[in-house]
Design brief:
Length: 460
């Protein structure tokens, strides 16, 4: 069958996947270390920082759909998404450095203003355009479902590998480069340069399919083609209506946000390691325990998708395992048993890995669902849920952490934190991730987009 035609060589898949190195030298660096940099180095209030992040994310929610629609309407010699991915990262590199270059001589209000402006420009403009374009490429460079799953797995292996490396080396790297504001600024510059180089390589490693192939090879159903011919144009408002009408898109959006809140609260583990376990460098140990099983699971995901005849059963079963294991982390955490915490964290990550690997393929299925229903292609707008989820979810998670730290009486650089703060750190690092996993499991039970698409094709 035509759907099984392959479009990519191994180096195209690896080149595409390496783009998440660029994304995570921004995202993982910010989510793991920005809050503690602002509170313990610059002296800013965690609650105020959290509030500013939240306002920034409100603006982000508007720009996600805007840039998704812009990508859908872009036509250049190198495609729709690749130009946005390429040029937007220049702004990402500049802003990640600017965030960690808050001038020491400025007043307190100016510090907050500097942070808010640079953080908003990074997230709402440059990272949005880059990330949506990068994610949309999954649907634009191949129509083969297996290749999409492979791309997702490779992509997230790079993502979690980069996150693992950043969480492992950053604390010591800051010390090597002089510590304090100087150390953080130097590390930010290094990460920005690495991201710029890798992003460019990723853009140049793939080519987008012509529009006639994208339309013709998705389905040869005459009814769909007729609908598309009758309604050839649509604007941002129409695209937004199509998104809202796609229930599977809504489920994935909610899941994506929850997954990022999960990651953001887990990344606040540096506070848990510092003030409960007594060693900030343990963040790297936990990063290994979490990311190595994830990467191993991602390697197996394409094979498991075939074995389970699709993504639904695999993802659902994986998150049941993950939720139960996060409960084990809670028990081990209150016992003070570090080896058990690491073990259960690893098992939970292994259970979560299939969804991480096939998530882009699921979004492509959602885009296919809209096309089968309306005859209109909104791949860029559809993939806005990835950037929307990353930023709103990450923003909510980081902001929530700031609010909770502030409410609990957190004292920056204190040798011993108040008991109220210690109790809050247990809630943030142990309980919130488990509850989020439980909610995602329930949502996955409703995400039957593959069977819905099969029914739509059969009924045409």
């Amino acid at each position: 069958m035509e759907k099984k035609k392959t479009y990519l060589k191994w180096y195209n898949k690896v080149g595409y996947g390496s783009g998440d190195i660029a994304g995570n030298v921004v995202y993982a660096f910010l989510s793991s270390f920005l809050m503690i940099f602002l509170t313990d180095t610059i002296g800013m209030n965690a609650g105020i920082v959290g509030t500013l992040m939240m306002f920034s994310k409100l603006f982000d929610g508007v720009t996600d759909i805007f840039f998704g629609a812009m990508i859908d309407r872009t036509k250049t010699k190198i495609g729709k998404a690749r130009p946005w991915m390429l040029w937007a990262y220049l702004g990402c590199s500049a802003m990640i450095v600017m965030i960690f270059m808050i001038p020491a001589g400025m007043g307190e209000t100016a510090h907050y203003a500097w942070f808010f402006v640079t953080y908003t420009l990074l997230n709402a403009v440059f990272y949005t355009a880059n990330n949506i374009a990068y994610s949309a490429l999954t649907a634009l460079i191949t129509k083969n479902d297996s290749e999409r799953v492979q791309m997702g797995s490779i992509r997230f292996m790079f993502a979690f590998g980069t996150s693992l490396l950043i969480q492992t080396i950053t604390v010591d790297a800051v010390k090597v480069f002089g510590g304090g504001a100087t150390g953080w600024k130097t590390v930010a510059i290094i990460y920005a340069v690495i991201g710029l180089v890798v992003n460019t390589i990723s853009v140049l490693s793939v080519k987008e399919l012509p529009e006639d192939k994208l339309a013709g090879e998705t389905s040869d159903l005459k009814e769909i083609e007729k609908i598309a011919d009758d309604n050839p144009k649509y604007g941002l408002k129409s695209a937004a209506k199509m998104l809202i009408a796609n229930k599977y898109y809504i489920i994935i959006c909610v899941m994506y946000i929850l997954m990022q809140v999960f990651t953001a609260t887990l990344n606040m583990g540096i506070y848990f390691m510092t003030y409960i376990l007594g060693n900030a460098s343990l963040l790297g140990v936990f990063a290994w325990a979490i990311n190595i099983p994830l990467i191993a699971g991602l390697l197996l995901t394409p094979l498991l998708v075939k074995k389970f005849n699709g993504m639904y059963k695999l993802n659902f079963a994986g998150y049941i395992i993950a939720t139960v294991s996060r409960g084990g982390v809670i028990v081990a955490g209150y016992m003070g048993n570090l080896p058990l915490m690491l073990l259960f964290s690893g098992i939970a990550s292994l259970g979560m890995s299939p969804l991480q690997g096939d998530l882009n393929a699921l979004i492509a299925e959602c885009s296919e669902y809209t096309f089968l229903k309306t005859g209109k292609r909104i791949d860029g707008t559809m993939y806005s849920c990835t950037s929307l989820g990353v930023k709103i979810g990450g923003g909510i998670g980081t902001a929530l952490a700031g609010w909770l730290l502030n409410a609990s009486g957190y004292v920056a650089n204190a040798v011993v934190q108040p008991e109220s703060c210690i109790n809050m750190l247990y809630i943030m690092y142990l309980w919130i991730p488990m509850v989020i996993n439980l909610v995602i499991t329930l949502l996955l039970s409703r995400l039957k987009v593959e069977s819905a698409n099969a029914s739509l094709r059969a009924n045409k």
